[in-house]
Amino acid sequence: MDKSHFNTFIFSNANKIYYYVFCILKNSDQTIQIVEQTFEECWNKRKELSHSDLTPVFRIARDLAKNEMQGKAARRAVLHQNAEVNPVLLHFCELLKDLAPIQAEILCLRSLSRMSVDEISKIVGLGLNNVQSMLAEVRKLVRAQVDPKGILKEFSYHELLTKYYAGSTSIEEEEQLRLFVSRMDLSEIPESDREVFSMFLKIGNAEIPITGSDILRDKMKELQTTKFQRVLAKIKKQSK
C-alpha cells in the first residue's frame, strides 16, 4: 500500500478505531496515544495491509489497548470526563460499565465501528456463533439499561427488530433500522429502541476530538518524513 492509499485508508477509519479503543480504555488521552501507536505499527506494516481489510488494524489497536490496561496494574478503567469527548459516547460507555469487557468490545465493534460478524470474530478471536450469540445477549442487556421496566418479548413492531435482538441482522439491515428511526418513519417502534438507535447515530456522526485529530495528523507527518528530511529541517532551523 503506497503513502496516498495508506493515508486515505487510515484517516477514513480513524473514528472507528478511536471509538473502539475508547470503549476499552475509557480515557481520551490514553486512547489518542494508542491510536497514534496503531498508526505507527500500521505504517511500518503498510506493505502487508490491504486497503479493504480493517481487521489487522483493529487487531493491532486491540493488542496495544490491552497491553496499556495491563500496564496500569490491570485496574478497571474509569470513565474519563474530558470536555472534548462526545457526551453521547460517554453515555454509551456508562451503559457498558457492568458488561464483561469482551461483551463491550463486540457491541462497540458492531454498533460503532460497523464491523461484520466475521470481522469481529477475527479481531477478538472467537467463533462466529459465539460472536452472534454474545451480540444478541448484549443488545438486550443494553436495551434493559435504557428501559429497565421494558418487556423484551414482543417484536411485532417491526420484523427487523426480531432479527436485531437475535443478533442475526446484516449491517445493511441495521443501517435500514437506523435510517427509519432517524426519519421517524417507524413511530410504532418502542421509545427504548428509538433511543438506542439514535444513540448509535449520534456517535457514528461525531468526529474525534479536535485536539486528538491534530495530534494524529502530526503523528502521520512525523512517520512519513524521512530521516534526511528531518535532519535538513533541523539544520535549517539552527541556521536561522
Give the arrangement of secondary structure elements:
Blueprint: H1 3-12, H2 14-25, H3 28-44, H4 55-71, H5 87-96, H6 101-111, H7 117-124, H8 128-146, H9 159-164, H10 171-182, H11 191-204, H12 210-223, H13 227-239
Helix pairs in contact: 2-3, 2-4, 2-6, 3-4, 3-12, 4-7, 6-8, 7-8, 10-11
Descriptive notes:
This protein is 68% helix and 0% strand. By secondary structure, it is mainly α. The protein has two domains: 1-84, Orthogonal Bundle (Rna Polymerase Sigma Factor, Chain: A), CATH 1.10.1740; 86-208, no CATH class. α2 (14-25) runs antiparallel to α6 and α7 crosses α8.
Average pLDDT across residues? 83
Q: Percent helix among the residues?
A: 55-70%
What's the number of structural domains?
2
Number of helices: 13
Strand content: under 5%
Q: What structural category characterises the helix and strand content?
A: mainly alpha
Could you list the spans in which at least 5 consecutive residues all have pLDDT below 50? none
Distance between the termini: 38 Å
The gyration radius over C-alpha positions equals 20 Å
Tell me, what's the shape? globular
Instruction: Give the beta-strand count.
Output: 0
Largest sheet: none
Query: What is the chain-wise order of helices and strands?
Result: HHHHHHHHHHHHH
